[in-house]
Amino acid sequence: MVWDWIPRNLGMIGGLLGEHVVLALVPVLIGLVLAVPIGWAAAGNRALRGVLVPAASVLYTIPSLALFIVLPAIIGTRILDPLNVVVALTIYTVALLVRSVADALGAVPSMVVAAATAMGYRPGRRFVSVELPLAVPVLIAGLRVAAVSNISLVSVGALIGVGGLGQLFTDGYQRNFPLEILTGIVMVLLLALVVDGLLVLIGRFSTPWTRVGANA
Amino acid sequence: MIEFRGVTKRFPDGTVAVDGLDLTVDAGRITVFVGPSGCGKTTSLRMINRMIAPTEGTVTVDGRDVMSGDAADLRRGIGYVIQQAGLFPHKTIRDNIATVPLLLGWSKRRARARADELMEVVGLAPEMAARYPAQLSGGQQQRVGVARALAADPPVLLMDEPFSAVDPVVRESLQEELLRLQGELGKTIVFVTHDIDEAVKLGDKVAVFRTGGVLAQYDEPGVLLDRPADGFVDGFVGRDRGYRKLGFLSDELPLAELPTVRVGESAPDGWSLVVDPEGRPLGWVQGGGSVEEATVVPGGSLYEVGSGSLRSALDAALSSPSGRGVAVDGDGRVAGALSADDVLRALAASRADEAA
Ligand SMILES: Nc1ncnc2c1ncn2[C@@H]1O[C@H](COP(=O)(O)OP(=O)(O)OP(=O)(O)O)[C@@H](O)[C@H]1O
Ligand SMILES: [Mg+2]
Questions:
Q1: Which residues have CB under 6 Å of ligand 1?
Q2: Which of B7-21, B127-141, B286-300 comes out lowest in average pLDDT?
């Protein structure tokens, strides 16, 4: 009985799922932390923006497999090191989010920023308590794209032996066992849906002011 | 007491916004800066709290050069109210008002208690404390703006056209309340407006600016009305005395076509009016390039076609940064542009009618 394969391998599938989550989402977190200051710099300076945003877009066009393979040569990791995937996906996340952050901060009304300055906010605190919160809706949109695209890109890592659920594809293909491939696809899809849903919830929870009816 | 000594502001592009300003703002009084759009009122005001640094000369508050010391500390001691309130959209009314106390390190509890107290002072119902700015009317938002500026009880209050975005009836009640508050609080207030009527009503002293950032006359309102220093002041003051009396248009004003752009679109050179997807005006942008929400300059007051109010037509033409007043239809959609010349001509015509 083929379907048996799933319950018998639940432990393995769970392990791969955990690996997939780490490989996909750790880069989202690191990428966010890196992209916020870069995007902030880009939003504040036209010339810098002219360099950073196109540079980020170019980074994003590098094929993932190529990046997984050349990274070891550049950062000195072993070819099968999961770090390669984490670093590569972090690069993609930064590339995606720099633009989101720059756009989000650019869309904060200058009057509100001026009012904050005039109240006596210093730039650091103003950024954290005024500009960043107002940028959250656009930022969440960027994070959703980054998270979902990372979840799908991690699978590619299976080709170099580090790919979380993607290993179900390579293994199932080698053993000519479609159920394993199917399990991989369904799990990746579910993971993407759940993570995306969670981000939407986080976004809603952290921006209550965007859902009040305007009567002004 | 606030003093301007030989203050000139030249922007990097060469614009001289304020030219050799010498002026003393009396402590505990309301001083109004009035003049046509672009005459340097906002620039002068913003040099007091160091949002703008003078190119030449010094501004002192209580004898201290504002450029010495820490800018943020200076600003926490100076209340600031701007047009359309500039409230933080993501903070509740209570937290908006508590902003400066929290920056000054008060406990949350004390800052909130102070905010609740101020809501009462400016006449806002307590149940609004937990609302967000978008849930308030324009007039209520302005009250919040005033409460926020007063929260840490600063001796100085700067107000930049705080009431120009609300309708005339609400504006009048806000003015009355400012006067009532001032009677109790005795702050040193610098109030900017383009409306001489508002200036005369609120000001203990009025400074009339002319384009180019030159102070034309600085006097008590009565002196200004009786003995204008020159033709410009006479025109500015007299014109208003004319329209206060008249108030209504005999004929509808001609509307010029007004090119509009939306956020995200590319604007032509010069001033363009930015509209929302429904065609309602959001403000102006200057210069070409892609229009971003953040660069939109608030647009002054609007003239509703068919209202026949000469006053609101003149208001719209004078308060528009582009020099073209925005006329809207009954649904608030842009209908066209009013030129100040046309409005003034209509004014002259109705005066002539009156005289005849
Ligand atoms: N950052 C800037 N760079 C260059 N020019 C500026 C800048 N800010 C203001 N100006 C110019 O300085 C002049 C005075 O501007 P200011 O904002 O002080 O006018 P205002 O009297 O407040 O006008 P309004 O009634 O329209 O608010 C204007 O010609 C304006 O275009
Ligand atoms: Mg101004």
A1: B 11, 13, 15, 17, 37-43, 194, 321
A2: B286-300
| pLDDT tens by residue, B171-191 | 888 899 899 999 999 999 999
Rounded distance from Cα B11 to ligand 1 centre (Å): 9
| B72–A215 C-beta distance less than 8 A | no
Neighbours of A190 (CB within 10 A): 12
Residue of A nearest to B88 (CA): A112
Option in B73, B86, B296 nearest A115 (CB): B86
Tell me the count of A-B CB pairs closer than 8 A.
87
Other C-beta atoms closer than 10 Å to the C-beta of B281 total 23
Query: CA–CA separation, A30 vs A14, rounded Å?
Result: 24
pLDDT tens, residue by residue, A22-64: 999 999 999 999 999 999 888 888 888 888 888 888 888 888 8
Tokens of A70: 């050349």
Which domains does chain B show, CATH number per domain? 2-248 (3.40.50.300), 260-354 (3.10.580.10)
The H or E element that residue B59 is part of is: strand B56-61
Looking at every residue in chain B, the average pLDDT score rounds to: 88
- Cα(B252)–Cα(B275) distance, integer angstroms: 24
Distance from CA of B58 to the nearest CA of A (A): 19
Quote the ipTM score.
0.82
Nearest CA in chain B to A116: B88
For the stretch A102-105, contacts whose Cβ atoms lie closer than 8 Å and that sit 24 or more positions apart, written own/partner, are A102/A39, A102/A40, A102/A42, A102/A43, A102/A49, A102/A52, A102/A53, A103/A138, A104/A39, A104/A134, A104/A135, A104/A136, A104/A137, A104/A138, A104/A139, A104/A142, A105/A39, A105/A40, A105/A43, A105/A44, A105/A131, A105/A135
Report helix, strand or coil for B191: strand
CB B66 within 8 A of CB B59: yes
List of domains in chain A: 2-207 (1.10.3720.10)
Judged by DSSP in three states, A109 sits in coil
Contact (Cβ atoms closer than 8 angstroms) between residue B278 and residue B288: no
On whether any CB of chain A is under 8 Å from the CB of B134, the answer is: yes
Question: Rounded CA gap, B39 and A110, in Å?
Answer: 21
CA of B42 to the centre of ligand 2 (A): 4
* d(C-alpha B326, C-alpha A79), whole Å: 65
Residue B136 forms contact with A (CB below 8 Å): yes
Q: The whole model's pTM is what? A: 0.76
Contact B215, B43 (CB under 8 A): no
Does the CB of B103 have a partner CB in chain A at under 8 Å?
Answer: yes
Q: Of B254, B258, B271, B269, which is closest to residue B333 (Cα–Cα)?
A: B258
